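Question:
When you can, review this sequence-structure pair and walk me through the tokens.
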Amino acid sequence: MTAFTQLMDSESEMPLRPNGSPRYHPEGEPNPPSRDSVVNLEILPQTNDEKQRGWEALTTLTSEHENSSNGGDSGAGHGDTYTGYFRDRIHSDWWYRCHDVATCMTTLFVCMVAFVSPVAFLLVPMLMWDTEPCGTPCDGYYISIAFKLLVLAIGSYGLYARQPRSYLPAINMCKVALRLLTLTLCVSYWLFFWFRIIRYKDRDYKSIVDFSVTLVDGLLFIHYLALIFIEIRHQRCCYTVKVVRTIDGESRYYNVGQLSVQETASWVLEQYYKDFPVYNPALVNMSHHPGNGSVSNGGLGSFTLYHLDGEPSDAGSSGASRAVIAAAARKRDSTHNHRFYHEQDFQRRVKKREARLIIAAEEAFAHIKRYEYDEGRPSGLSVMEPLESAQTIFPSMARALQKYLRVTRQQHRYTLDNIINHLAWTISMEFSALAFLERYTRPGPVIANSSELHPIEYWELISDHQVVNGISDGLGFRLRQAEVSLVVYVARLPFFRIRETYIDPKRNRFILRLQSETSV
């Protein structure tokens, strides 16, 4: 258990995630296997040389993590920048809470008025004055009203009682109009009920029941209208939006329906988190390294002109200046060669590190085998849980994994505890070595990188048009979060006129034209 003790001691030396605390939250995986859910595994024996190489790899992993945490990592800087951005906007949470409470209370009030009104129309005449009994027809109306109200309650709950995926900067005009329409219908019926039934104490109870049934029917029609405008109308694609991430030029195209500007912004953010690759500022800034021959590092300032014969003449000075400018231009023209070879060398180093990592992972996974109770416990071999198995085989691949994460600038995203928990999960699920490395060799979209996410993501919507208005052809707006910015362009899909062209089967015949040089 010496390796296990050293592994736990080095865990405190690992760099923390941008939000300050290493926690296990892999890509869509449940909690790591605990001792309550034991998966017994059989570990094949390792030689002393393999164990020694694992300890050396573990020591290298800890020291390199310490160096990376002490050095200026641009990825960590991005986390600190966003933390400040996050804190600056906490004061605006009260507006969202008030908006949420006001919307909930308004919806609840309108629903209570709508559901109580038909029942009140039936009970008030029976309690205030004597009415003429209507017998069996009224019993059928009672059943009809009860089932219609039940269907309306279920439909309203499914349509309105949902947690919103985002808080929009302005109110939803469509939902407000539907609430006003429902409230107007109920108020109109109450006014008619007061002046025509209560005022004159109408004794015809069948007509009162018919009056209540018409109100329920009107509420069902409004609910059908709400279903069309809220859920169905925007599903018909009318526009194509182009989303460009300005910081690195990554872009995607999507088709959307009739949505407002703020609804389109919310929908675009949902697609951004699942489709766009995660932005790594440390990897992007590698192209601006001083050794790549950029113009900013090799311009006119890199040339010094000396005059050996004293003060130069105007003609000599102008000629020398032209020579310096020409030399700077030649150096600037060669910048693309430096950039090309720099990118080629980087890709070569990444492939080299990835190949070494795959070999190390396959060798580590070759030492582990699932233990079956039916086979009987073998003598001389230990049976361990997935977490202990991961802690045992991880040192043999730690050095290769750390070097790969450093060359791809991902070391700030993963902690030692996070990697071991992920390894334990893959072992319990019988993943192969390539399946375990997929998380690191193919980082995936933004949503798959938990270190880049926060419980609440704050974005700013910048638009020249009212956000409650619908999108139109040629409209553009911007979404901004710290240094990441998304620019959205809207274009209308064209109208397609399709015409059928009939081809006579008799004309669908061909002949072979033979010539002297024809090979057929």
